[in-house]
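W.,

You were right to be curious about this one. When I first looked at the sequence I had no strong expectations either way, so I just let the prediction run and decided to look at it fresh. Below is the sequence, 781 residues in total, followed by the output.
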Amino acid sequence: MALTRMLGLFAAILLLSTGIAFLGYHYLKLASEYRKNNFIHLSETQRAMDYLEEHPKLEKSEMEVLRAHVAAAQAQAIWCVANLSALETRAFHWLGVGSALDICKYDIRTSELLLARLNGLIESNDARHIVQTTPYLVFYFKRGLLRMREDSFAFQPFVDIIEGKLGLLVKISTLIASTGLGLLFSLVAAKLVRAWRSQSDQTIEMQRMAQRFSLAIQASSDGFALFNKERVLLTCNDRYRELSHPNPAFIRDGMTAIEIMNDAADKGFYQTNGLDTADFVSGHVLQMRSDHDDVQLEISDDRHVLVRFSQTEFGDQVITRTNITDAVRNARKQREYTRTLKKAKDAVERQSLTDPLTGLANRRQLDVALHAQMEIGPASLIRIDLDRFKQVNDVLGHDAGDHVLRIVAKLLTEHTREDDLPARVGGDEFVVLCAPGTQLQDATILASRLLHAIKHPVSYGKKRCIFGASFGIAIGDPSITAPSELLSNADAALYQAKADGRGKIVNFSNDMRKAAKQERALADRFMQALGDGEFVPYFQTQHDARTWKLSGVEVLARWEHPIDGVLSPVKFLGIAKQLGLEAELDTVIFEAAERAVAVLKTAGIILPRVAFNVSASRIIDPLFLQHLKLIPHEKRKGYVFERLESISYEDASQHLVMAIDTLKDMGFKVDVDDFGSGHASINSVLSIEPDSLKIDRRIISPLGKSERAGQMVSSIIELARSMNARVIAEGVDSEEKAIILREKGCDELQGYFFSQPMSAAALAQNMTTYNNRGAATAAQQ
């Protein structure tokens, strides 16, 4: 029984030792495969680096070749991990070489990043971006390939460890097996012979690989050096010598890294930035040991190298040096180009914020400053508009006008404080954004000082430019007033200053605020009102100056507002102009008046003459002329279109002149409205050959009390007679004025003495009264 147990134990030991021996032989062969694949990985990595050095432009074809090498190297790393079972992976850790698998995994991640970047570039259509970033991409790929190559070097010692431990294990188990079972000696011996032959073959293969490795190092475009743990040089390539010393032949195996750097620094090979050799070298060594990352050095002739340091577990060090001169110089050029662009951008930005004529801030800069100030607190604005500036331009020329604008800008700069912002926002329009914290009283004092300074005449050559200014002041709290609203408030105050006689200073008030709010509400509703039919025609009668019988009507626009009641044009014509809806408003009133006249005709009321106010934008609208062509010819002579005398027909577009001629050719009459109030020359009025001149109500108003008014009326009537045009006086509000105008030869009269503007229904109801108004009195006289 004891012998049986002993034999069983012996058999078990024999079986175990034999199994261990055979398992050891298997993994020795596997270790050889790892060595071979590691060499393939190193070779593919080196080929990729060489190819990258030879093809730095990185076209798509070059990227595809580079991708093939990286993928081949990655396949070896993947094989090293994927070829092991879970049990074999644990055996690797038991042998103390588990870090080799970590190196493979790290290498796989590095190659995945490179392949992902290469795939993205190959699939990208942005060739311009690739060209612009080529220096960075070359550097990026070189750095990744260097790391992959270092992984190959770091992996090799672990293969040696595996082979050493497996060889020892095989020897022990073989000895036990051979001692225990002589009968199996021949078989075991044969196996051992084959194993040793395989090992010999592997050794020869490793020698070949070492030779190839040496050739690969020499062929590398990067400097490569291997130091032992005592920092003594074991081997390096010629490129390392060129990038480490002015005399490459000086570097020999057995020298230390510090000896090499000291001698090179003493010979001026490095840019030490004022440090002595000892401090420079010690600082570099300390940086390499502490960072274990890339370190950039500048060497002679404005060249630059990237030094990378890595260390094995055994203390051996691998140092690589990469020439990055082109990348550094390109980066330097890029920084200089960026600085140049920034300077140009800053110059353009300054120009975009400055008025070129006066040097003051422009509207854009004012808006930016106003928004910024109102983000932190209230703001005060002084709105300035020059009075009589147009006369300076018209009489003395635009050069004189520009001279005046520059003088005003200088006055604004001189009389405002450092934190005030004077700006030119239009032709002769200025704004002063007062310094933060400015109160209404302070702004008013500043405006008074500016008004006093601007009132003084300015000399231009031998002539004097006489002008003035009107001021509107508004203060806005950001909690209740937006910046755009504050500007509108200052505009409203300025408008009031001009209405009060110019040369005034007006502060924005609550009444103005209410009016502005109402105007905004009307503007918001304007489009809806057009569609809802709230704009309707009103009619004011016109009478023969001799008989006072009805001779026609003028169509006037009214807004029947659902809340505010009937609004006169003064309330909404400005809004229509701001919204660009003058033509639409004219269309609505004209079509509604046509329908009303047709209804009156059906009731037996014939209006001899119907006058319409029409905007220039409406006259030149082709649809308007097309609509007029539908009106029968016999009705056209009763239609009159009134244009304001304030429109200068000499400056009007050719389209407007042609449209007026077309109206007259179609049989319609054209009158000049508000004659005597505008600035058009006699020639411009003559150019359209009007059928009638309507004397402005401001000339009629003082009639009977002002001799000058009577003379002006007589002059206009005489002018009209020379043009073969009729004369219509509007604003006739008394019998006395009606009689004076009749005696002076006026043809028709219009005003509150005869009637106020009324709806079509009211006109029909009182038609008899208006037709016979004053007929008996006229007959008696």
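Here's what jumped out at me. Residues 96 and 161 are 8 Å apart (CA to CA). And, maybe more interesting for your project: The two ends are 169 Å apart (CA to CA).

Coffee later to discuss?

I.
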